[in-house]
């Protein structure tokens, strides 16, 4: 049996809808069990977030750090598949690793098969050098991907093509050529939203009207009957229209025929995109 508890930190990027952190958890669990720990000695922290946002939204990782900060002996070790899972920002990632190292909490990087601390509890200097290189490389890789992605999104927006994500703006769909075109059924809802708003109804009233009529949101239609929340599982049937959704629709320039990318207005073919 292990000495105490261990933690698994798994993360996938929302920029790739094909990724699933369950594979990371399974691989790390096998390693941990070989070291003598049981299922009830493993705590899992997992999340799906963008690796390229400037804002640090790693809620699960912050919860892990908070638990370690309150009791640095709570976990014998923290397991993750690779250094890029902890973070893409090299400065913040280095800071997080150093914080855990200073507290005497080792981090096991599965791709390297090593811990940040040796058996004597001191910093693994070889690992330290390798980590620094990997952290910088992960950041470079992320920046390269971001530039390529923006270029592709810009090209799609200018030609009227739909994006590659699962979500499309309410009122639109992809045609056989992956062009963004008007969804006749949803367009009626969009036009009604703008009509209600122009007649003096607030966003709260409008969302209530749509919910009373059981008009499905885009999420409900896209992910019908699927479980999609890791921390608090619920069906997409629970997703209702909100004040924010209505406000976002009213403010979205796409309903005037303009698409926006990184706060830049891009004119799209009006015959295919204009709704309002």
Total beta strands? 9
Poorly predicted regions: 225-237, 268-274
The number of distinct structural domains comes to 2
CA radius of gyration is 23 Å
Within the CATH hierarchy, at the fold level, what is the topology of the largest domain? Rossmann fold
**In percent, how helical is the residue content?**
40-55%
Structural class: alpha/beta
**Main sheet: which strands, in order across?**
2-1-3-4-5
User: Strand portion, in percent?
Assistant: 15-25%
Biggest pleated sheet: 5 strands, mixed
Task: Round the mean pLDDT to the nearest integer and report it.
Answer: 77
Question: What is the N-to-C order of secondary-structure elements (H for helix, E for strand)?
Answer: EHEHEHHEEHEEHHHHEEH
- How far the N terminus sits from the C terminus, by CA atoms, comes to 65 Å
CATH architecture call of the largest domain: 3-Layer(aba) Sandwich
CATH superfamily of the largest domain: Resolvase, N-terminal catalytic domain
Shape: elongated
């Amino acid at each position: 049996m292990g000495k105490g508890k261990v933690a698994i930190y798994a993360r996938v990027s929302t920029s790739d809808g094909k990724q699933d952190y369950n594979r990371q958890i399974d691989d790390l669990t096998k390693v941990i069990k070989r070291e003598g720990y049981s299922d009830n000695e493993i705590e899992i922290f997992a999340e799906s977030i963008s690796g390229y946002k400037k804002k640090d939204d790693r809620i699960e990782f912050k919860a892990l750090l908070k638990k370690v900060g309150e009791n640095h002996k709570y976990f014998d070790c923290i397991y993750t598949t690779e250094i890029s899972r902890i973070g893409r920002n090299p400065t913040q990632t280095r800071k997080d690793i150093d914080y855990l190292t200073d507290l005497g909490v080792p981090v096991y990087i599965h791709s390297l098969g090593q811990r940040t601390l040796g058996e004597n509890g001191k910093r693994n200097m070889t690992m330290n050098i390798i980590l620094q290189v990997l952290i910088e490389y992960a950041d470079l890789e992320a920046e390269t991907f971001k530039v390529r992605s923006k270029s592709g999104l810009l090209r799609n927006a200018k030609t009227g093509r739909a994006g590659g994500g699962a979500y499309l703006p309410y009122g639109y769909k992809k045609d056989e050529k992956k062009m963004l075109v008007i969804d006749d059924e949803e367009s009626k809802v969009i036009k009604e939203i703008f009509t209600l708003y122009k007649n003096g109804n607030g966003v709260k009233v409008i969302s209530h009207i749509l919910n009373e009529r059981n008009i499905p949101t885009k999420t409900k239609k896209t992910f019908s009957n699927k479980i999609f929340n890791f921390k608090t599982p619920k069906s997409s049937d629970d997703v209702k229209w909100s004040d924010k959704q209505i406000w976002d629709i009213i403010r979205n320039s796409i309903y005037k025929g303009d698409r926006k990318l990184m706060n830049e207005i891009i004119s799209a073919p009006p015959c295919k995109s204009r709704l309002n």
